[in-house]
Amino acid sequence: MHRISIVLYLLLLTLPATAADIPDGFVELEKYIPGIHIELRYSTNENFLGHPVEGYQNMRCIISVQAAEALKGVQQELKIFGLGLKVFDAYRPQRAVDDFVRWAKDLDDTKMKTDYYPGVAKKDLFEKGYIAAKSGHSRGSTVDLTIISLDNELPAELDMGTAFDFFSPQSWGKNLSMTSQQRANRMLLQKLMQKHGFKTLKEEWWHFTLENEPFPARYFDFIIK
Fold it and tell me: Are 209 and 199 in contact (CB under 8 A)?
């Protein structure tokens, strides 16, 4: 190999990931909707495992084109009122789901219990439906998100009553033990998402799946890099 070819090859290895890493039918959400906030928790230590999840090698939020277009409508409506969307997760590789399952079977690893599942024994996570072997996220049109206020220099999440991924009945979208403001915030998120074609999951106020998802029976496993 000529020296110039070797240098070019090494440069290519250091370039950031491009759209070529994403299968047809998917987009990078932050590029598709400028101004949307991304906090991909599973690429960090800030999640119920306490470490980056397998398959999340970068803070890139990937989602189907159809779901991205629907979210664009939600973002536009919120922007009028000085609000916006923050996304915690969208497409999730199957290998990440497998990582969740392995973690759930390791009953000795409870370092994140206080923050994410204080009221449930780890051995019961499967039975109660908090962990499963398959996830709609792997089909590419499911998203976990919340609403943020853009009033200040640092955007603040609206108070939804619980944190994202809090394993508890308190996270049910219509839990009546929340304050009136918390219930109103959840209702705003649910109504806007439903208006733009998403269906809710009753157990998680943050979780929405596009009604007419383009890949309803396909579970993807490409790495987020």
Answer: yes
How far apart (Å, rounded) are the C-alpha atoms in residues 104 and 116?
Answer: 13
User: CA torsion angle for 36, 156, 181, 191 (degrees, to 10)?
Assistant: 0
Q: Which pLDDT does position 12 carry in this prediction?
A: 37
Distance CA 225, CA 220 (A): 14
Q: Is the pLDDT of residue 4 over 70?
A: no
CATH number of the domain that residue 152 is part of: 3.30.1380.10
Residues with catalytic roles: 204
Q: Which pTM value belongs to this model? A: 0.90
Mind listing the pLDDT tens digit for each residue in 184-217?
A: 999 999 999 999 999 999 999 999 999 999 999 9
**Residue 7 falls within a domain, yes or no?**
no
Among candidates 160, 48, 155, 185, which has minimal Cα distance to 112? 48
CA–CA distance, 181 with 159 (Å, rounded to integer): 8
